[in-house]
Design goal:
Blueprint: H1 4-15, E1 34-39, E2 44-51, H2 53-68, H3 83-113, E3 123-128, E4 135-142, E5 156-163, H4 166-179, E6 182-185, E7 195-204, E8 207-220, E9 240-247, E10 261-275, H5 281-286, H6 294-328, H7 335-352, H8 371-391, H9 397-408, H10 414-421, H11 425-447, E11 449-456
Parallel strand pairs: 5-11
Antiparallel strand pairs: 1-2, 2-4, 3-4, 6-10, 7-8, 7-10, 9-10
Length: 463
């Protein structure tokens, strides 16, 4: 019916995008009504509200009276237009306004009185709008689940310990020397680990496709940054023009190309070999290291690796704790919230490759591929919120100040950083969440059982 779209938009504004919570601002007008709640599938609920005739009549009469004082209709003096004439001219629009207002006033009260926590805006339908009878409407919503955290003493989380040996340090130094090295042209066939500069154009059944070409493209052979077979077919070639055939993998992120064979015209323009950087003053400056010689360089690399290890140990342990909680706390999550999270993940993935939803087709990072991760994230968010309440965790100013003090040590001018961050409210909110999570993890360590898991530093690449 006319006017319902406006109603839904109004209710959507109240939902905040993450579920309407009227208990936080219960500024609704008093409405006499009857409410029934029906449980549908999983977290869906159907709310049916019946508003009595007298509530409708009071609003309708008030609006007619307000119009009466302003209406200008030929043949009648201002303020003396008969009600039946006003109803004939304005009745339908007033009727729609009254119904919308009654729903907007009664819906929050129905939600609050029945302790419901909607996860998204309602799907509203008018069941009866006969002004001579009670106005009846239905709202179908998904609600957030009621979660009572469980802590299993039978399921262990893994407390990670990462071992670093001399070989790991040697590999790290070798990697730095390569990354800060210089690529130089060589007059020979391309080999594994060489960098090549190419122009390429791809075709499928003789037709070009989106993203099929590039000019002066730099490619390190063995990086596996291209589809299977692409890099292998360049190895052994000297600068020249040639064609290669490759097949897109079955799980390729663009569905229309998955499993499809393509032919590429390659113009191999240059083959380059890395000349590793020397461990000297220039490299120390590039790495912002205040050191003098190779021995100090090795010590500094070892120190940085140990700092990385500490951070990784905490992160892997935290992930294991959360995985353990998800195993012992089984509950449904609202589909609307999962879809919303999946959409955010897709937008982020598109942004990372320079695309937006407007210029990317549905086959580019299909939404379905994000649903599993989105569901896990939503469950963790819901569980996180309940655990914060369960442990009565609160972040105080001194906690934030201690975190900022810790962060400031990463900068040369710690005082300047602290002054700057004090004027960054969004960043401070993020810090609050980090501190909150840290406190939660410490609480969870006290109520859950753990087992030690030792891994090598080299295994981090597989984590």
């Amino acid at each position: 019916m006319a006017g319902v779209a406006q109603l839904v938009r109004a209710l959507d504004c109240g939902s905040g995008g993450r579920g309407f919570e009227p208990h936080r601002s219960p500024h609704y007008k008093k409405v006499n009504m009857k409410v029934t709640i029906k449980k549908l599938k999983d977290l869906e609920r159907k709310i049916t509200v019946s508003v009595p005739v007298d509530s409708y009549d009071a609003k309708f009469s008030s609006k007619i009276k307000n119009i009466k004082t302003k209406a200008k209709i030929d043949g009648f003096r201002k303020g003396n237009v008969p009600n039946d004439v006003l109803e004939q001219r304005y009745g339908q629009s007033i009727h729609n306004e009254v119904i919308n207002e009654l729903i907007q006033e009664s819906y929050p009260k129905a939600i609050t009185d029945n302790d419901l926590r909607p996860a998204a805006s309602p799907q509203v339908s008018i069941d009866s709008e006969d002004s001579k009878k009670p106005i009846i409407y239905s709202a179908i919503i998904e609600v957030f689940p009621e979660i009572k955290p469980k802590f299993s003493r039978w399921t262990n989380y893994e407390e990670f310990e990462i071992k670093v040996d001399d070989t790991d340090i040697d590999l790290a130094i070798a990697d730095i020397k390569k990354r800060y090295g210089e690529w130089k042209d060589v007059n020979r066939e391309a080999r594994l680990d060489d960098q090549v500069i190419i122009d390429f154009t791809g075709k499928i059944d003789g037709e070009e496709f989106e993203g099929n070409s590039s000019q002066d493209f730099k490619l390190v052979l063995g990086s596996n940054s291209m589809i299977p077979g692409f890099e292998d077919n360049i190895i052994g070639k000297k600068p020249s023009k040639f064609n290669i055939e490759c097949t897109f993998p079955d799980d390729y992120f663009k569905k229309d190309l998955a499993g499809v064979a393509a032919e590429f015209e390659i113009n191999l323009k240059a083959v380059q070999q890395i000349t590793e950087a020397k461990v000297d003053k220039d490299l120390f400056e590039k790495l912002q290291m205040e050191i003098k010689d190779k021995n100090e360089f090795r010590d500094e690399i070892s120190k940085r690796m140990q700092n990385e290890v500490l951070a990784q140990e905490k992160e892997l342990t935290k992930e294991s704790i959360y995985e353990t909680l998800l195993k012992t706390n089984n509950f449904k999550s609202p589909n609307s919230t999962i879809n919303e999270q999946a959409d955010l993940m897709r937008k982020d993935a598109l942004m990372r490759i320079g695309h937006t939803e407007d210029n990317a087709g549905e086959d580019l990072f299909p939404i379905d591929t994000f649903l599993e991760k989105a569901e896990k994230r939503v469950k963790l968010d819901l569980l996180f919120a309940e655990l914060i309440k369960h442990f009565e965790i609160k972040v105080e100013k001194k906690d934030i100040d201690a975190f900022i003090e810790e962060e400031s040590k990463r900068y040369k001018d710690a005082e300047q950083y602290k002054q700057w961050i004090s004027g960054q409210p969004q960043q401070l909110d993020q810090f609050k969440m980090i501190v909150l999570e840290r406190q939660l993890v410490e609480k969870l360590k006290n109520v859950l059982k753990s087992k030690k898991k030792v891994i090598k530093f080299s295994e981090l690449a597989n984590k």
